[in-house]
Amino acid sequence: MAWFLPRLLASFLALTLGGALGVLAGALLRSPAIGAVVGAGSAVGMVVLRDALHAGRLMRWLRDGQNGDAPRDAGLWGELGYRIERALRQREQALAVEHQRLAEFLSAIEASPNGVLLLDADDHIAWCSAVAADHLDLDAQRDLRQPVTNLVRMPAFVAYLQDGAWREPITLAAPGGRGTLQVVVRGYGDRQKLVITQDVTERLRAESMRRDFVANVSHEIRTPLTVLAGFVETMASLPLSGAERGRVITLMQQQTDRMQVLVADLLQLAQLEGSPRPPADRWTPLGPLLQRAADDARRLSAGRHLVAVDAPEGIDLAGLDTELLSAVANLATNAVRYTPAEGQIHIGWRQRPDGQGEIEVRDTGIGIAREHLPRLTERFYRVDGSRSRDTGGTGLGLSIVKHVVQRHGGSLEIDSEPGKGSRFRLLLPAGRVRQAAAVPQTGETAGTA
Known about the structure:
By secondary structure, the chain is an alpha+beta fold. It has four domains: 86 residues, no CATH class; 87 residues, PAS domain (Beta-Lactamase); 69 residues, Helix Hairpins; 166 residues, Histidine kinase-like ATPase, C-terminal domain (Heat Shock Protein 90), CATH 3.30.565. Helix content is 52%, strand content 17%. The protein starts with a helix and ends with a strand. It catalyses: ATP + protein L-histidine = ADP + protein N-phospho-L-histidine. It is found in: Cell inner membrane. Its main location: membrane. One of its GO terms (molecular function) is phosphoprotein phosphatase activity. Its EC number is 2.7.13.3.
């Protein structure tokens, strides 16, 4: 209110001065009263004109977007312009802060692995995250303000959205068959809706694999137990000759060995999944490791195959030798099981140009159809279940191989063609391969058992 008293005094002085000048002018015209009125009115008019000019400048500044500072006039209009400008600047700062908070909030939602969709009261898209757009095959910008039911035409989704209860999530096939989605809708505000989408493809796949795993373990153990129970009953209820008793005991021993191998493989898988990653500074010579894997293959082959090994000298691998040997030996013994008699099996090594190491097990066996390759490393997955059991496999070997090589930072590559054989390659990163001290070569090792 600092402007009020000066403005009041200025107006009083202007009125007094105008009246006095009017009286003097009226005296000359012999009409002092009229002169006083005209003088006072002129003074008031001058004050009003001055206020109109100040108000005009302030209005122009407001109309032109408040660019620059408000007019810095003295008195009332200067005070009014300053306070308007300060209020506008404070509002702009508050809006900027709110916009920043909103942007950070939306960025946080964008970082979520779940999709988020905001719908208005008429089910029009108010906002859509990139993940939700990918899940529902939408365009996050182009589809704004569009009815979501015109864009997502899955009948189950439309019915769920319009139901209004939303007590439980709904599971849907993603557009284009790209997986499985779980959708949750929640109401908020004035009939607005929050739609959350989650890709549950891997979770459902893991649950299915867990169920299959339990079922397979139960089946694998129940089968030899059933056989053992039958033999025990036979021995208890029937008089057997010495030869018959010996044959039954041999069969019982085979079933016992089968269960022991299965349990050992299961324990190894559990250990691989629960153990820390192998150290990168514990080095193992490659040559002896490949030779031991070849020896395991020869013992299983019993002279029915040609098993050759290219065991280079002077190469070390970083990791656990027991795990690496298990992986290579599993591949080699698998090659023996699925290669007909007189077939060839080769275990070799090479270092790729990028420094990666490659252990290859190659055979001339029956081969594997292409459609089976992606699932070969699943637990208990068998291309031919009866043949696998006949050859003594548990269905866990390749799963063990995959876990071992992944724990060492590598990967497993498989190439196969029915009737032509298979190639299994263990790829190890360059950081786990080194050249050891040079050792004179003694020649290629190859042989048969």
